[in-house]
Amino acid sequence: MSSGSRRKSYSTSRGGLTEVADCVWEIAQTGGMRVPGRIYADEKLLPQILSDKGLEQVVNVAHLPGVVRYSLAMPDIHWGYGFPIGGVAATDPSEGGVVSPGGVGYDINCGVRLVASRMRREDVGDRIPDLINALFRDVPCGLGSSGAIGNLSQRDVRDVMAEGARWAVTRGYGTEADLDRTEDGGRLSSADPSTVGKRAVERGRSQVGTLGSGNHFIEVGFVDNVYDKARAAAFGLELGSVTLMIHSGSRGLGYQVCDDYLNVMQGAVSKYGIDLPDRQLACAPIESPEGKRYLAAMACAANYAWANRQVMMVLAKRSIAGVMKASEAELGLRLVYDVCHNIAKMERHKVGGGERLLCIHRKGATRAFPGEHDDVPDCYRSAGQPVLIPGDMGTYSFVSAGTFTALEDTFGSSCHGAGRVMSRSKARKMARGRNLADELRRKGVYVAAKGKATLAEEMPSAYKNVSDVVDVMERTGIARKVVRLKPLGVAKG
Amino acid sequence: MAERPHYTEIDHTADVGIELRSHDLVSAFEHTAACMFDLICRLDEIGSGWSRRVTVVGRRGDLEHLMVRWLSELLYLFTSSRILLSRFTIEELDVEGRGGMSESRIVALVHGERMDEDRHNVRVEIKAPTYHSLRIEETPEGWVVRIIFDT
Predict the structure, then answer these.
(1) pLDDT value at position B99?
(2) Of A135-149, A245-259, A329-343, B121-135, where does mean pLDDT reach its minimum?
């Protein structure tokens, strides 16, 4: 860790945490922990982090067999189940390392994609309600939403799981260039559809191209601040230009894969004699039949999510072109990048001088590779991989760029969003008697939402200030701030 | 329409948790299922014209596993067939695998109705019941269940 040399000048201690470098706090290795915990946070974010159970979960993750170096938490950390949200952990298969579905979550490959355009904010000025209403109409959203492209056969679903975003492209949804600008090309080759159960396949039949509910959204915004001109230019994000952001995942198919394998892992834990502080961390050695099958099934769900976001993006682009009465080419609608933030992937990382193949769990964390990394497309060689960080509906989202520091310090990982601070029930109570849609409209954000409850639960004050979160990543050199996006309108489930 | 069950919501940052009390183990399983559906859609909005007998198996002697399997099975009826459930009658509850059975088991008759977006106000999408902080305990005042759902 590059921070080791700075250890001496940081000896602040807070609630069992010791600051070992600027904005890096360590939980000492005690009891059954196999490694220490490391939390990225500044003084502003720390009180909230200390107030919920996220830190206990960082400690729990440090108990996983084969965990390497640290159980990490990004500044958007909050209490989840199993792993904390914002948790990152690497496990080494050659040291009996495990893979845990609880380190990925139910919404496998929940992620974000960002589309840039040549449209200026002035061009869309009073058209925002039309645009959002059209997106709300054309991209099915809400609980159990279905029917974007008709029902698929079971065979089709298996093809989606095997091919990922390419499945969509070969059927006319998008272009090869989109695949180049998607993490892993929109497909994990380790996918094996025979490892996915009937129920998951059945649930996948009607949901390709659908948004879902909860914190998923489609947002139209614009670049309102540029921090790094060269990188912004490389990403095609000009000051004042309009953007489209889509946040969704693998829908019911992914939830079912997680559920099915969590069940398998309950048996694996006793079979392999694994001792865990939380059953939701149930896991199996990566090299075991159970571990291999989970990774193959998880890859299927990840591929389904990429196909889902690819189809949604194409539906959304058509929708925008329809409202603006111009072609997509004229509007310059172009995918910037697609990242996943709930995933476990086999990646090569340098540890202690040597390179090792590790299983990187990112649960509410985004990959943040530097431009020179082989997995970053040529177009971003000089800029680094775009890191997409959506904020809450009412404030901002950010685009950062991955760095070498991330590769060295956090297994190439950064934050994934603002991070919740308020429970959903508290948010609903706080929203009682208020018209949140009106409040947001007064802030210049037009909202179309299916459920009033969803809107209340996702209200801006339920989240941390995303600017604080992104600033910690900038200060620690994990992800370099490139642009800030201001929302103009949001469609939600 | 069914009556709404009693439970308290636990303050969880990202998800939804509940705590409830029941006088015996059978009713604790029935009650937890009712609470899960009450989170999804208030139980007094759900009819009971549809019914099905469901069988759920779990690991022998593992109460937590059986509870999660039970709730997952019922949730699957909703996510796959859009059936909102309102009444739960457990006919057989065998945690210890009696008579040499290798698994624990629940047989139950469940009632509900197909979701109708005009009448049913769905409040939250539950992805799954979780094991995190799961507690199923007998106390002097009866059984206490504490469970967190991923939403």
Answers:
(1) 82
(2) A135-149
The ipTM (two decimal places) reads 0.92
Mean pLDDT of chain A: 94
| A99 and A91 Cβ atoms separated by less than 8 Å | yes
A306-342 burial code (b ≥16 CB/10 A, e <16): bbbbbbbbbbbbbbbbebbebebeebbbbbbbbbbbb
Q: What is the per-residue pLDDT across A384-427, written as a single tens digit (0 to 9) for each?
A: 999 999 998 889 999 999 999 999 999 999 999 988 888 888 88
**Distance separating alpha carbons of residues B119 and B42, to the nearest angstrom:** 11
- To the query of whether residue A416 is one of the catalytic residues in this protein, the response is yes
Q: Is the CB of A424 inside 8 Å of chain B's CB atoms?
A: yes
Q: Which residues of B touch A255 (CB under 8 A)?
A: 79, 127-128
Record the tokens describing residue A219, joined without a space.
Answer: 């947002």
CB-nearest to B12 from A79, A263, A421 is A79
Q: How many residues does chain A have?
A: 493
The verdict on a CB contact (< 8 Å) between A81 and B65 is no
- Interchain contact A255–B (C-beta under 8 A): yes
Chain A neighbors of B122, CB-CB under 8 A: 143, 451
CA atoms within 13 Å, Cβ hemisphere of A297: 30
CA angle A405, A411, A414 (to 5 degrees): 70
What does the pLDDT look like over B34-78, one tens digit per residue?
Answer: 999 999 999 999 999 999 999 999 999 999 999 999 999 999 999
User: CA-to-CA distance for B103 and B115, rounded, in angstroms?
Assistant: 33
Quickly tell me which residue has 């869309």 as its tokens. Answer: A124
Q: Which of A216, A361, A373, A416 is catalytic?
A: A416
How high is the pLDDT of residue A2?
45
Q: Give the mean model confidence (pLDDT) for residues A185-209.
A: 97
CA–CA separation, A326 vs A238, rounded Å?
Answer: 20
Backbone angles phi, psi at B86, to 5 degrees: -130, -25
Q: Which amino acid is at A113?
A: R
Rounded to 10 degrees, what is the CA torsion of A388, A416, A7, A277? Answer: -160
Q: Give the β-pairing of A479-492 and A446-449.
A: parallel
Give the other-Cβ count within 10 Å of A454's Cβ.
25
Chosen for mutation from A50, A423, A492 (greatest number of chain B CBs closer than 10 Å) is A423
Is some CB atom of chain A closer than 8 A to the CB atom of B76? Answer: yes
Q: What residues does B92 pair with on adjacent strands?
A: B107
Q: Which residue has the tokens 């047989």?
A: B107
Q: Is A144 on the interface with B (CB under 8 A)?
A: yes
